Amino acid sequence: PPSQAALSQHGLSLQMRGSRSKTLHDRALVNCQYSMATFSTGERKRRPHGDRKSNEMTQHLKQTFEAAILTQLYPRSQIDIYVQILQADGGNYCACVNAATLAVIDAGIPMRDYVCASSAGFIEDTPLADLNYVEEAAGGPQVALALLPKSDQIALLEMNSRLHEDHLESVIEAASKACKDVYAVLDQVVREHLQEVTTLLGE
Amino acid sequence: KENCRPYGRELGEFRTTTVNIGSIATADGSALVKLGNTTVICGVKAEFAAPPADATNKGYIVPNVDLPALCSARFRSGPPGEEAQAASQFIADVIENSQIIMKEELCIANGKLAWVLYCDLICLDYDGNILDAFTCAFLAALKNVQLPKVTINEETGLAEVNFKEKTPLNIRKHPIATSFAIFDDTLLIVDPTAEEEDLATGSITVVMDEDGRLCSVHKPGGSGLTGAKLQDCITRAVTRHKEVKKLMDTTTESVKLK
């Protein structure tokens, strides 16, 4: 989808700045920040972060990655994940999750599995996977799903608007399939990158 | 000693420069510039505003630089730090000094309505020499801007926007920045990386336009520089201008062909 997100990870830091009280003695603290560029939306966005929607997104990302990263391996440390949306065209949360997965892998931080996300909706009795801005704005029910593809475990599921329970399964099915497709792409990219890097290092 | 830098780069050589124009569809104009690892993106959004009271026939160009925590571990999240604010002011000065656009051309109706161009520059990866990258991205994004035709309805006094008729901005001058790091008053290296900047004792940025005119010389303190060295910087800036202008023209042409 044309939503573009830029991501960076600063690896692990021994938690020194900020409140010492937030340090967890037995695992790493995952800290996320979600920010939108002012030119990312149709109308210029005056508050890139700090508003309610951004804070909610930040919380969701944090919860998703706390479920996936093996935080017990890094007690008393902090992992910072910063996501910046450059162009928003629907599926912002999903683009962030996919980008963050790649960044965490790039940083060498171990995870249980890739986290792949996709949205899905239900328009005119048809489940639709990966909604764009126009489809989201239409106001129908939407589901955002973050999946750990190998084990088929759901890291995060969010639904808004109203959907009849009979249709829920097909919508989740559509989102799951899209997640697995994303997983195939991410996995291929990671393997290609790894091959490139090891070839360069070997020289 | 060997007169070159890590990875065999010459003292007067720039890193590989990449320009990508028009990638952000939600912005009215956009450009992504990479100088080696340093990556910056500029997005321009055009909005309406009332012209300033003391210059009723002018519009506004508002640059804003953001150095978010994601571009480098040296930045924390929060309000813009010193470096971001200084960079914003630098870009604002370049706009004023180089007269890149006549603000009068941004006016739609004298005293009533004018365009305001919000130019947001975000650094995505900080590896030194952000001023050069920002100036280049800013110029490229402005060249990409297409403003729709606006007419004021005589009867209602409201603005009518015709999105089907778009015209590009009239870019009068093309300022390009060239930055140097100074070591111990004697050694000058062009396009410093973050590591080189941290070790340098001073820095200087020269902004030139295509007519060989100096738009700005920015030397914020640091170790001294002789007149002769300054002249060397200016000479290098002239050659750099040609390189970058050629790159930008090629990129703009390729975007038009689509």
Topology:
The complex is a heterodimer of chains A (203) and B (258).
Chain A: E1 4-14, E2 29-36, H1 52-68, E3 77-87, H2 92-107, E4 116-123, E5 126-129, H3 133-137, E6 142-148, E7 153-160, H4 165-202
Parallel strand pairs in A: 2-3
Antiparallel strand pairs in A: 1-3, 4-5, 4-6, 6-7
Helix pairs in contact in A: 1-2
Chain B: E1 17-21, E2 29-35, E3 38-49, E4 60-66, H1 82-98, E5 107-109, E6 113-125, H2 130-144, E7 146-152, E8 159-168, E9 176-183, E10 187-190, H3 194-199, E11 202-208, E12 214-218, H4 227-257
Parallel strand pairs in B: 4-6
Antiparallel strand pairs in B: 1-2, 2-3, 3-6, 5-6, 7-8, 9-10, 9-11, 11-12
Helix pairs in contact in B: 1-2
Radius of gyration of chain B: 19 Å
Described by strand count, sense and barrel closure, the largest sheet of chain A is: 4 strands, antiparallel
Q: Count interface residues per chain for the largest interface.
A: A-B, 26 and 25 residues
Low-pLDDT segments of chain B: none
* Portion in strands of chain B: 25-35%
- Element-level helix/strand string of chain B: EEEEHEEHEEEEHEEH
- Low-confidence sequence ranges of chain A: 11-18
Structural class of chain B: alpha+beta
CATH class of chain A: Alpha Beta
What share of the residues of chain A does DSSP label as strand, in percent? Answer: 25-35%
Number of helical regions of chain A: 4
Identify the quaternary structure here: heterodimer
- Taking the alpha carbons of the first and last residues of chain A, their distance comes to 37 Å
CATH topology of chain A: Ribosomal Protein S5, domain 2
Q: Tell me, rounded to a whole number, the average pLDDT of chain A.
A: 84
Number of strands of chain A: 7
CATH architecture designation of chain A: 2-Layer Sandwich
